[in-house]
Amino acid sequence: xxxxPAALFVxxxxxxxxxxxxxxxxxREWGRSLEAPEAIVIVSAHWERTPVSIGTxxxxxxxxxxxxxxxxxxxxxxxxxxxxxxxxxVERALAASSLESGAVQRVDDRPWDHGVWVPxxxxxxxxxxxxxxxxxxxxxxxxxxxxxxQRLRRELGPDTLVIGSGGIVHNLRAIDWSETDLPPAWASDxxxxxxxxxxxxxxxxxxxxxxxxxxxxxAHPTLEHWLPMLVAAGAGGLGDTGSPGPRFPVEGFEYGSxxxxxxxxxxxxx
Length: 270
What we know:
By secondary structure, this protein is an alpha/beta fold. The protein contains nine helices and twelve strands.
């Protein structure tokens, strides 16, 4: 029995997750439960650009956009096709709206960063589903990010999976590479708050995270890994009447406080 979600939020973890099959076993299991969509449109924490911009529509080598990691990680490839046909639909969804101060832009020389390919090598390892990356418009308001997700869903329809790729808790300064300690209270408290808001479908609380979320400054010293959640929640119909509640196929922490939570929005069973 396969599941067809409207949207996903993926905590993509450290870049080395791409070459650690044991650590990524839960992500691979999640991928096996998914009905393969016709295309993927993905918003990554590692491409912040306002107004919303559309990445490459032609095949390009992957962007290895990180420092300090060598060896097998540099050899990772992900040769999925590019979902170039979704670019016009994304532009239609957003360009004529009041969401952005400028028109949607095309940046065809922008390849897929590790926020794209790290989760996809496990979720869809056969590299057959076409992919299009859209920038994270991090300078817009939380409400507008949620609305961007809604507009993407209306325009793209059920055959396209919208993914927000970031991290439920992401504080690199607090990482414990030895993994000898349990997650600190601030990390588990923030994650518990986020899960509760999602389960209740409380979109207002989600968009008001700056005032309501506990330990935000510790869980997210900068917000780029959290904001893709808003796009995914909007695309997934969070809070819509009759919308199925979210599922959490991937849970837990790695390296002490780095959250691994994965969220599945608006799933239907085939």
